[in-house]
Amino acid sequence: MAFLKQIRAHGFKSFADPTILDFSHDMIGVVGPNGSGKSNITDAIRWALGEQSAKSLRGSNLDDVVFSGSSDRPALDFAEVTLVFDNSNRVFSTIDEDVVEITRKFNKKTRDSDFFINNERVKMRDIQDAALETGLTKSSIAIISQGTISTFAEAKAEARREIFDEAAGVAKYKKRKREATAKLIKTVENLNRVEDLMNEIARRLPNLERQSNKALAYKSKIEELQKYEVAILTRDVKIFKNKIDQLSIQKSALTEKVKILSNDINFSEKEFSEMINETSTSEISMFELNDKFNELVQRISELKVKKNDAESRENNQNKNDHADEIKAKQYKKEFDEKNINVQIEKEKQQQWNNRLTEVKEKYDYLSDKFENLYAEVNSIRENAWRLKMQKENLEKQQHSSNFSNANYGSQAIINHAKTIGGVIGTLMSLVQVQEKHQVAISVAAAASMHSVVMKTSDDVKRAVEFLKRNQAGRVTFLPLNTLNPSTIQGPQRTAIQQQPGFIGFANDIVTIDEQYRAALDYALGTIIVVDNYDSAIMLAKNINYRFNIVTLEGERILPHGAIVGGKTKNQNIFAQTQQSENNLEEISEKLQQFEQLELDKNQQLNDVKNDRDKTRDEINTLSSTIRVSIDAYNQMINQLRSISEDYKIITGKSLDPNDNTKSNELESIKFAKEIAKLELERDNAQLEINALSANKNKYADRQKELNEQNSVKRQELSDLKDQLSKVSAELEVLHVRNIESLKRLTEGYGITSDTALEMEEVQFENEEEVRDRIIQLTNDLRDLGNVNLDAIVEYQQEKERHDYYLVQTKEIREAVEKLESIIHDIDIAMETQFKKVIDDVNEALPEAFRRLFGGGTAKLIYTDPENILETGIDIQVSPPGKKISNLNLLSGGEKSLVALSVLFSILKARPLPLVILDEAEAPLDPANVERFARYIKHFTNHTQFIVVTHREGTMENVDILFGVTMETKGITKIVKIKLIDAKKMVAEESPTT
User: Fold this and answer.
1) Looking at residue 573, what is its pLDDT?
2) 37 among annotated binding-site residues
3) What is the C-alpha end-to-end distance of the chain, expressed in Å?
4) Per the database record, which ranges form the SMC hinge domain (predicted)?
């Protein structure tokens, strides 16, 4: 039976060239001198079948299996061996192929070892399992060398047992037992470890369960509280918002009224001052005119005396005249005097008419100017009103934003920073945020941005006292000397940084002066910024919802799992604040310009009005004076006509008023003319005095009127200020309450003011009961004390782990029992098969012993019959004519025959497909060699033999001979040879080899 059909080797030991050995016979002989590489054939078979021991392959390390070179051949860097087997009898039971090729390759450079079965890559274990089926293992009788024979008889009983284990097929059972035992040890270790873990968890579970139940109670109550509190707080915020809006409108209206009334009072007071000045000016002018008037009166009086004297002289001169002449002179004199008055009155009228024309023109000019100024003032007021509306709307929006961000109190602190001392500024004013991060930071820390950074806690104390004293709201202070900020550090920080979508930690992506770093870390130190919602959810799960996470779009995941999403109009507080401030500043500047312009125009309007009123009064006075003068003039003309008629009756001549002949003019007439002129001046002075007196009285009346009006206005202003103060105080209270509600919503639930205002209002049957329930829940939560919310998940996880380990423990115990049962079954199978092979060998041993010894008997015995699995094997032998109690008493040849007889008995009991005999018969004498060789023939029906030999008796009995030579030093060459050539080859072997 040719089981091994072919060996192909290249690079293995001395097989430098590709070498092929075709085995088509049942008994093959291999001959050659020592050192030629005969045993390398055996080593090649061992190596290809998975041998790992370099010592078993007659080397020091694995590299020794590769051709190391010779004097004229370089070393190779690989070794490859292929064994071709006939598997038609399915010796390899797991391979359903008639031919099985097993290949092993080794690369010295890469250190790669590759194994193949029928050109398919396999593991070394697969090759070793295949070797077990052939019996070609380290301890089996499939490979028998001279050393094996010599040590077999001399070996201890326990060591000798290994060969019988292999023969009994116990090796695979022992392997299975070793694997099962190793697995059992590992399983028991695993069981102990699992039980330790389970016991540790079991010790922790009761406390965790208590904490979990407490946390569940807390969670239930907090959820109920949140439901009620959010509903109540959002309702309060809406109510506060409506009231604040109403009061803000009322406050704006009152402020405007106060402003208008204050301006009116200022104008009235200014006009009052002007009236005083005008009165003073009028009095001065009156004094001056009175002096002039008195001077004129004095002068007129003096002239009248002179006139009377002249008339007396003239009368004395006329005593001798005729009565008619006297009378005519009197008429002439009276006519001339009256005519003088007529001329003077006419001059007066001319002056007054000229003045009236001037004053009317001035009045028309002032009226036009007044109308234009009035239109300008109205236009300015309309534009100012529009700007005020814009400003009020912006302030309302900013006010609402400020209050929603708890900025009211902060602003009060900033406004009085110098008074308080130690105020650095709001956190928002100290940081710089890139535009791409502004939404994320706004959403994550809007409330914190309005916290006020202070130098020390003492400064905070003064600031708190200021807020209390002025009821200016509540503020979060960040004193730099006491802050102990918390940031994410250590392995957890590194792990978070490696998460997909990670942008940065909020306190790292915001810029601030390093001296204020503690405030920034306190506010933003545990906030993580990621790119989008999916990244946020993934990160939150990975860190067990421990920290605040916010996306660039403004979604926010709070600790413990609450999620805030959506979008509001003003969620970027940085951009919103800057825009609002810019708009307000621009409108305020324009409004201030308009207000100043209105003041200037109003002053001009008031001045024009006063001038116009004065002009109108002067027109009325002049018109009245002219009418009186015309009446007087007409009366004097009539008198002149009457005198002229009387004069004509006497003289026959008419008197002409236009006759300016002065030749006959009397001295008294001259005085009369001068007196008339002075009286004209006196009358004009009197008119001016009267006008000034009238103005003075008018100014006095206006002063009184203004005083009375201002008194009423001041009282009205005081009342308005009281109302404004009350509205402001009420507004302050509402702001504070609104801030507190919004702060609880923002910090507790992540709900902004815009979101709160958009939420649907929840209706309660009894709101008071709900508020009482909130108080009760708040007290219950306080009574619960410290709560570990992680205990819920931790308890569930630990409980699941405990249950899992409980199941694992049961399964592992079952596995232990199963492994113990397997080991027990293996022990039974090994014991059964071992006893069977010993019995079978004992049955075949007597015949084999007789054939090799030519007689005698032999038997295998147990050294420990009670422990078959551990017992050693002794051999009792009785060679022909001898009684031996100890194998060591036999000669070397006899020991070899004993070993061979036992080995052949094993082959008979358990035939192997292939046996390699490597100079196994070397110690035998020629007769026994001949007997040995012939005896092998009895086994060739079931076993293929490869015999490496030097003995002629063996060579004569093999089917084919292969000669092994080294024509080139270090390189083995194999050829088929005849018996005679084999004898020559052995004969030529060096005596030293």
Assistant:
1) 55
2) yes
3) 34
4) 421-540
Least-confidence region, from 310-324, 629-643, 760-774: 310-324
The answer to whether the CB of 107 falls within 8 A of the CB of 115 is: no
CB-CB neighbours of 655 under 10 Å: 22
Task: Determine what percent of the chain falls in helix, strand and coil, rounding each to the nearest 5.
Answer: 65, 10, 20
Closest by CA position to 573, among listed 758, 759, 752: 752
Consult the annotation and say whether 36 binds a ligand.
Answer: yes
- φ, ψ for residue 82 (rounded to 5)? -125, 130
Lowest mean pLDDT segment, chosen from 73-87, 178-192, 510-524, 975-989: 975-989
Q: Is 40 labelled a binding residue?
A: yes
The CA distance from 561 to 902, in Å, is 80
Residues 826 and 173 sit within 8 Å (Cβ to Cβ): yes
**Please, what is the Cα angle at 177 between 171 and 180, to 5 degrees?**
145
Q: Are 241 and 737 in contact (CB under 8 A)?
A: no
Q: 38 among the known binding-site residues?
A: yes
Q: Reduced to 3 states, what is the DSSP secondary structure of residue 50?
A: coil
Q: Residue 280 annotated as binding? A: no
Q: Write down the pLDDT at residue 403.
A: 43
Token readout for 343 is 């001329």
Cα–Cα nearest to 873, from 168, 171, 173, 163: 163
What's the rounded mean pLDDT across residues 657-681?
66
Q: Has 911 been labeled as part of a binding site? A: no
What length does the chain have? 993
State which CATH number among 3.30.70.1620, 3.40.50.150, 3.30.559.10, 3.40.50.1820 fits the domain covering 405-574. 3.30.70.1620
Q: How far apart are CA 587 and CA 263, in angstroms?
A: 21
pLDDT band at 318 (very low <50, low <70, confident <90, very high): low
DSSP 493-554: HHHHHTSTTEEEEHHHHEEE-GGGHHHHHHHHTTEEEESSHHHHHHHHHHTTT-SEEEETTS
pLDDT digit string (tens) for 767-812? 788 888 888 888 888 888 888 888 888 888 888 888 988 898 898 8
Whole-angstrom distance, CA of residue 277 vs CA of residue 703: 11
Tell me which range, 7-21, 223-237, 475-489, is most confidently predicted by mean pLDDT. 7-21
Q: Kindly report, residue by residue over 387-407, the tens digit of the pLDDT.
A: 777 766 766 665 555 444 446
33 is in an annotated binding site: yes
- Domain range list for the chain: 405-574
Beta strand pairing call for 19-22 and 4-10: antiparallel
Residues above pLDDT 70, as percent of the chain? 89
* CB-based contact 453:516 (threshold 8 Å): yes
Asked if the model's pLDDT at residue 644 lies above 80, the reply is no
From CA 79, how far away is CA 96, in angstroms rounded? 28
145, two tokens: 């060398």
Which of 819, 886, 985, 987 has the alpha carbon at shortest distance from 36? 985
Q: Tell me the sheet residues that pair with 4.
A: 85
Collapsed DSSP state (helix, strand, coil) of residue 93:
coil
- Both tokens of 877, joined, read 């032998």
The rounded distance, in Å, linking the Cα atoms of 352 and 203 is 123
Can you tell me the distance from the alpha carbon of 770 to that of 857, in angstroms, rounded to the nearest whole number?
Answer: 109
210, HSE (Cβ side, Cα atoms, 13 Å): 6
809-836 burial, b at 16+ Cβ within 10 Å, e below that, comes to: beebeebbeebeebbeebeebbbebbee
pTM (global) more than 0.90: no
Alpha helices of 405-489 — where are they, by DSSP H?
A: 408-415, 417-420, 427-430, 435-449, 457-470
- pLDDT band, residue 320 (cuts 50/70/90): low
